[in-house]
Amino acid sequence: MTVNTELAVTTTGGWARPGWWDVVEPAEAAGRFGPDDEKELYDDYCRLAISDQERCGLDIVTDGEHRRRGWIENITAALPGLVLQPAPRRLGALGYDMLDVWKVTEPLEELAWMWDFVGEYRFLRAATDRRPRVGMPGPYGMTTELDFRDVYPSRKACAEALVPALRGHIRELLDAGCDYIQLEEPITPAVADDDRSPASMVEIINRVVDGFDDCTFTVHICFGSFRRLPYAKRTYRWLFPTLLDANVHGFSLEFGGREMAEIDLVGQWDPGRILSAGLVDIKTHYAETPDDLVERLHTCLKYRNPDALEISTDCGLRRVPRNLAMAKMTAAAEAARRVRRDG
């Protein structure tokens, strides 16, 4: 396995789709693919994503999360006891209320399986000599598209119900050799009233990760990206320092699209905590240059040592044109190379 331990370059998980995705996807949706055809298709999507990341020079890679059709879309659809509700709005300007909603009709506490995370990991590990990482939706993240009001009194209660299943999947991943897992907890709104707080996030994150050794856990907290538009007020001030009570090795946060705002919060962390710094802005068509990213890296290095700093994207690259994603991430790898060489 090839690993850079200083200024490792990675992404938050999702990778850019090839342009021909839009030609193939309608045929798949129309039922023209058999099970073997579909497996071949998604294997090819993921091999291409892995190859792209290697060509860009990334140190920590994912499978692009293509099998999920997004960060949770297919995962949510695979859960039992859900009834699909039409999106409340279909017309007009883009907004997260154009997402479909799944109505929870039965308790989720006995849920034993959510998604083939271990299959994703084994495929990824076999396809690359770079360090593999698996992203898993956190409990609050999984509630984003769920209308849980008929079964649970609060978003926290629904999130808590998903903890046992997530822990089971983490155990499978660790048994398969996975040593890096990122929990995805974007600040996405809830269908019902949102009772999420820094303290409740810490409590539930710790219930997910406590007791698992020999694995690096980071938590990705962004402001969401619905077709490259954020979901939330873009500030982390309300989360810190309480979030530092989470028993994880670091956090993946947005900075590039906010002109490095709130980077000073990182100075509150203990020195060994990883900052997976979202320095690559996925919400702009501007392709950052290596010089841009060197400047952002030097800002981060005021607060983190190189071995506790990663260069990442601020959110997933799924909606970014593939050529633009390649340009951005190649620049990130070059910036890391320059700073490793020159300081």
Provide structural commentary:
The chain is of the alpha/beta class and 343 residues long. 34% of the residues lie in helices and 14% in strands. It is built from ten helices and twelve strands. The strands form three sheets. Strands 1-12-11-10-9-8-6 form a seven-stranded parallel beta sheet. Strand 11 (274-280), helix 9 and strand 12 form a beta-alpha-beta unit. The two termini are 25 Å apart.
Describe this protein with a few key phrases.
three-stranded mixed sheet; alpha/beta; 12 strands; single chain; 343 residues; seven-stranded parallel sheet
How many β-strand runs? 12
Approximately how much beta-strand content do the residues carry?
Answer: 5-15%
Largest sheet: 7 strands, parallel
Uncertain segments of ≥5 residues (pLDDT<50)?
none
| Gross geometry | globular
Report the structural category. alpha/beta
What is the residue-averaged pLDDT?
Answer: 94
Topology pattern, helix = H, strand = E: EHHEHEEHEEHEHHEHEEEHEH
> What is the helix tally?
10
